[in-house]
Design goal:
This protein is mostly beta strands. Helix content is about 0%, strand content about 40%. A hairpin with a 7-residue loop joins strand 20 and strand 21 (about 270-275). The chain is globular, with a radius of gyration of 19 Å.
């Protein structure tokens, strides 16, 4: 998920049954609204997708996240044991736009349709879109008109509070939301103020809410917004352990001149990048610097061709319009930042 211009990848769209299609033009950009009855397994292009079928998947369990690190090696962690979002760790991003120099970039550069809301409840530092419940951080999309936008959501970050660099490993244990147009992500941007993507961008996990069993990781780099490239890898898991029904973890192992991504307790990375890797060898390698973390749930946008199913959203804080409210929420069990030998 880019903070400036999202580099859309042309994936195959299939295996989804549509009931209703209509078009709406907003800010001269087209948004495709869908009402979907089925959210079916979709297999994407094999050239960009790696299938991972771990031995642990043979045992039915609620979480396949890797084991926690030795406490002595942990630099920082969040397990959301308190209903209060830690104000010393997290800040809210607010609105539907950001400023790039003298230019206001709407839709967060990706034609996103949500308004990110600020904290509402001062005693917990939360709001109706983002709250901590039963030891989990939950972000939910809401179909609620607010300041001219049809949807609200939440985005938090650690900028100016906590930074991350090498040698380390950064792990998230999460479960994704279901619904066309939902775009959960956790990702890193540089502390430097270099023009994107000169300073790099690390997308640890992104997913499309209409696809049950595939997530992706990506790295963005380049000399300017017009002279850039990216490296991306998708991973698919069996439909019995969908990312929307089970907890999984992704770990970024970060060393000087090396980034590696791992699913759960796998020993082999599904994505690796070094300065000599294909794609980045002709550019400056920007990932030996400090970054900050962003967690958000976007709605719509170019990542999935501007598709949106309004009925997938929550209509109130309780999400009572869905039999299983948690199925519509981006849920994070824990985050861990640890030393790497």
């Amino acid at each position: 998920m880019s903070g400036l211009f999202y580099k859309s990848i042309n994936f195959l769209l299939r295996s989804v049954k549509f009931m209703k299609i209509s078009f709406l033009s907003i800010c001269s950009l087209t948004v495709l609204y869908l009402t979907a009855q089925d959210y079916e397994y979709t297999k994407l292009d094999k050239s960009t997708t790696e299938t991972i079928n771990s031995k642990s998947f043979s045992i039915d369990q609620s979480s396949y996240c890797r084991n926690r690190s030795d406490p002595e090696s942990v630099i920082w962690e969040e397990d959301f044991s308190s209903p209060i979002l830690n104000n010393s760790h997290w800040s809210y991003s607010i609105g539907n736009a950001f400023n790039s120099g003298t230019t206001t970039v709407y839709g967060w550069g990706n034609n996103e349709q949500q308004f990110y809301k600020d904290k509402k409840y001062k005693n917990t530092n939360t709001n109706d879109n983002l709250f901590i419940e039963d030891g989990y951080l939950k972000i939910q999309p809401m179909k609620k008109k607010y300041r001219g936008f049809a949807y609200t959501s939440a985005r938090i970050h650690t900028q100016n509070k906590i930074s991350y660099s090498y040698p380390s490993k950064l792990t998230f244990c999460f479960k994704n939301p279901k619904g066309i147009g939902l775009w959960p992500a956790f990702w890193l941007l540089p502390l430097s103020t270099d023009t994107w993507p000169t300073g790099g961008e690390i997308d640890i996990m992104e997913a499309r809410g209409r696809i049950t069993n595939i997530v992706s990781s990506a790295l963005h780099y380049g000399n300017s917004p017009l002279d850039k490239n990216f490296t991306v890898k998708e991973i698919s898991v069996p439909t019995s352990v969908k990312f929307q029904e089970k907890f999984h973890s992704i770990t970024l192992e970060w060393r000087k001149n090396s980034l590696k991504f791992f699913l759960n307790d796998e020993n082999e990375p599904y994505l690796s990048l070094e300065p000599s890797s294909t794609g980045i060898s002709n550019f400056n390698y920007p990932f030996n610097e400090s970054f900050y973390l962003i967690i958000n749930l976007a709605i719509g946008g170019e990542f999935d061709n501007n598709l949106i199913d309004p009925s997938a959203m929550c209509f109130n804080r309780e999400c009572s319009n869905h039999d299983d409210p948690n199925s519509r929420r981006f849920i994070i069990d824990w985050i861990e930042y640890a030393k790497l030998d």
